[in-house]
Amino acid sequence: MKMKKYKCVCKATLANVGVSFSLYEEGKAIRWLWVVHRCVKCGVLGSMAEWKVGYEPSLHLLNEA
């Protein structure tokens, strides 16, 4: 897999990266997981990757992020 360098629409190359989770209502498993970024220069938000987790037990992923 070839890695692509980050470049924002404002031409900046530096971003903050975070992980976000969506839990099922019972709070016992993770429904979705996102890897997101925010441009340090202009603040534009974007998603690098997302996927449905949908299995139990999956709460251990919260500690792995």
Q: What radius of gyration results from the CA coordinates?
A: 14 Å
Number of helices: 1
Number of strands: 3
- Overall pLDDT score: 89
Which sheet architecture does the biggest sheet show?
3 strands, antiparallel
Principal-axis shape: elongated
Order of helices and strands: EEEH
Q: How many individual domains?
A: 1
Termini gap: 22 Å
Roughly how much helix do the residues carry, as a percent range? Answer: under 10%
- Strand-residue proportion: 35-45%
Coarse structural class: mainly beta
Ranges with pLDDT <50 over ≥5 residues?
Answer: none
The spatial strand order of the largest sheet comes to: 1-2-3
Describe this entry's structure for a reader.
This protein is mostly beta strands and 65 residues long. The protein has one domain. The protein is built from 1 helix and 3 strands. A 3-stranded antiparallel beta sheet has the order 1-2-3, with no helix packed on it. Strand 1 and strand 2 form a beta hairpin. It is elongated. The mean pLDDT is 89.
Keywords:
mainly beta, 8% helix
In short:
The chain has 1 helix and 3 strands. The chain is mostly beta strands.
Task: Please write out the topology.
Blueprint: E1 15-23, E2 30-39, E3 45-52, H1 60-64
Antiparallel strand pairs: 1-2, 2-3
